Request: fold
Amino acid sequence: MAKKPLSKALKYLYGIGDFLGDLSMSLRTYYWSFFITTVVGVPLPLQAAFAPIRSTISLIMQPFYGIILDSIKPMKWGRYRSIYLVFTPIYAVLVCMSWAFGLFIKNYTILMTVILIQGIIFNIFFQMLYTANVAIIGVITDNDADKALLASHRWAAINLCKVALGFIVPPLLTFFGARQSNPQMPYVTVAVILASLSLFGYMVHFKITEGYEETDSVEESDSKKKKAAGIKDIFKAIFTNPPLLALFCGNIFTTTTSFTFTTLAVYYYNYVVDLPEMMAFYLTATNFFAVAGSLLSSALTKRFPLKTVSVSALLGGVICLAIARVFAYNALGFTIAICFFQFCAATNYPCFITMYTNCALYAEWKTGTKATAAIVGVSNLPVTISGTINGILIPLALNAVGFDASLEILPPTVKTGIANLVTLLPLSYYVMAFIIIAFVFKLSQETMQKIIAELDARKQAAN
Reply:
């Protein structure tokens, strides 16, 4: 049974929740370390003692958010839409709390303990919301082009948020800083504003997805079958899914590439080309190119098969990274090459999200278990794994090339080493991702059409 076509609201407004929601998360990404260290005054050794605890707990819990979503009984607004309505207000309150604790708790050890507990609770609500927000794409439509459209709007919104953050947060901090005597209050105030905006954004998603997910009485006839899909069934749907495992491995390589640039770009501009002032231009330009690539992705998937678009984008990324190595000592040439690489990477990302939803359909076809959130939730794991790999590998690699921050002038061999790290490491990762998706990932457009047709036939027979 064909799903209803995308409404104009979905085509043009889906992603607003990601844009407004990511403002809150970006505030923490870019300002939290400075806030907790400089403004609140928590000693660095104490922060270092608590950081691994939260990271370890997050890594352990990461695979289970999607499994929980697919295992629990759906609420009256649907399995995934209900998360927008119920979880977002709690998420918004928890965002504000993390910035406000320092106003009331003066003992640093107690403060960090409370922030740790709050962070673990917050992560549960955030990850459930994030997973539902992505999983609902596969519920809204079975059409690859439509799924890619929604995924591309979502990714474009996230990249646009990174550009907008610099125009929104610093002026607000300056404005409230001039009017509030407590130095913590501007950050708390901005956190409240951004959390309120995220609440509004996800409520928009709740509204525009109305009618696209089975709810309440509509689900009743199929509820027994859905409840029967327990944790054992969901694990089976994940681990007997060759396309998912291939996509997962390819995704680890592409995500590790992103982390590598995030970490090493500052070293490149400061030490290889001695132009630290170009870092701001690099960040702005690459994010604009990422927005453009995200938007192009949906147009391409309307004309070409999904896998073709993904493989072409990955190959384009490989070529751009090779060009970046050629121009490694030319700041402008390197920056232009990386801008086009980010364009290719952003073109590929919505394809990967669509592929994850297709892997969920494959699992349902193969095992009879509907595990959309669990399988889409697997897409979160590469971020955690890649962050861990990057956190271990980059310091070791910098040490191996002889980098020493205490030296005023680095030897040419060290500059060459950094240039190799910032280009050849990402190039090797992207070559591996290209090989995996081109030759190991086997879900073609024709295969998906057959799977969708058979699943529709099964549903009609069951009714």
